[in-house]
Amino acid sequence: MEGGTRSETIVEAHGLNHWFGTGEARKQALFDITLTLAHGSFTALMGPSGSGKTTLLTLIGCLRVVQNGSVRLLGRELHGATEADLTVLRQRLGFIFQAHNLHESLTAMQNVIMGVQVRAGMSDALAQQAAARALGLVGLSDRLDYLPANLSGGQKQRVAVARALAGNPAMILADEPTAALDKDSAADVVDLLKRLGAERGTTTLLVTHDPRILDRADRILTLEDGRIVSTKGEV
Ligand SMILES: Nc1ncnc2c1ncn2[C@@H]1O[C@H](COP(=O)(O)OP(=O)(O)O)[C@@H](O)[C@H]1O
Ligand SMILES: [Mg+2]
């Protein structure tokens, strides 16, 4: 587990603004965002389409460059960080997107191994162990050699969860991970994220409209037109 107690801060944003486009087309997508995510917390981010959820998630996840304001992630300031710094930080994160983004030509096991190696830079043997363990945790031990085409939507998303969790990331960032799933599969994926996150002390930030996730979140942040308009729950 990453060291530290529940009260330790994993993410701290202050006065974060973000713009897209240049000249006439320049448009502000985020306004003066300030938030704190504690170690081990499970936070849901909601809001209408276009409110800035993905922009905020990708800034925190080092997938976009911070233009203005401050974001500290795992004790490092992202504003002004070099691409090399961002790459190192990104390796400590696990990502899950709405589309599972698995490689269709690779088996479940190979997909997870690839994710582990990209993130943790592990040896082949250790990556295999970590991948098999992660696939076991999501209940897919009997599907290691299946190609994505032969898995259901829910199973594919569980492979994506395994890929994000294998290699023990400090934080999971998920963008509408259950949006494309039927109710039962979505519930499985939510339970997994919540349970595995709690067991490992992983901090989780996920964009969702799913009421089952909102029920289980420690905190719910709501964005509207690029601003945080409500915060429910404890830090
Ligand atoms: N790559 C981009 N180029 C230009 N505008 C963008 C880009 N990505 C997002 N936006 C704009 O920023 C705003 C927030 O988008 P986004 O963060 O994707 O919202 P959400 O995830 O809440 O639907 C929207 O107005 C969107 O059109
Ligand atoms: Mg989005």
Can you describe what's shown?
- With 235 residues, the chain is of the alpha/beta class.
- The chain has two domains: 1-92 and 170-235, Rossmann fold; 102-168, no CATH class.
- 34% of the residues lie in helices and 27% in strands.
- The chain has a six-stranded mixed beta sheet, with helices on both faces.
- A hairpin with a 2-residue loop joins strand 4 (68-73) and strand 5.
- Helix 3 (108-120) packs parallel to helix 5.
- The chain is globular and about 50 Å long.
- The relative contact order is 0.19.
Please describe the topology of this protein:
Layout: E1 9-20, E2 27-38, E3 42-46, H1 53-60, E4 68-73, E5 76-77, H2 83-90, E6 93-96, H3 108-120, H4 124-137, H5 153-165, E7 171-175, H6 183-200, E8 203-207, H7 211-216, E9 219-224, E10 227-233
Parallel strand pairs: 3-8, 3-9, 6-7, 7-8
Antiparallel strand pairs: 1-2, 1-4, 4-5, 9-10
Bound molecules: adenosine-5'-diphosphate and magnesium ion (MG).
Residues 53-54, 175 line the site of magnesium ion.
From the spread of the alpha carbons, the general shape counts as: globular
CATH second-level architecture of the largest domain: 3-Layer(aba) Sandwich
- Give the biggest beta sheet: 6 strands, mixed
Which distinct ligands sit in these coordinates? Answer: adenosine-5'-diphosphate, magnesium ion
Q: What average pLDDT do the residues reach?
A: 90
Q: What would the CATH topology of the largest domain be?
A: Rossmann fold
> How many helical elements?
7
* Order of strands in the sheet with most strands: 6-7-8-3-9-10
Distance between the termini: 20 Å
Q: From the alpha-carbon coordinates, what is the Rg to the nearest angstrom?
A: 17 Å
User: How many β strands by DSSP?
Assistant: 10
CATH superfamily of the largest domain: P-loop containing nucleotide triphosphate hydrolases
What percentage of the residues does DSSP assign to strands (E)? 25-35%
Tell me the name of the CATH class of the largest domain. Alpha Beta
Query: How many structural domains are formed by the residues?
Result: 2
Model regions low in confidence, pLDDT < 50 over at least 5 residues? none
What share of the residues lie within helices?
25-40%
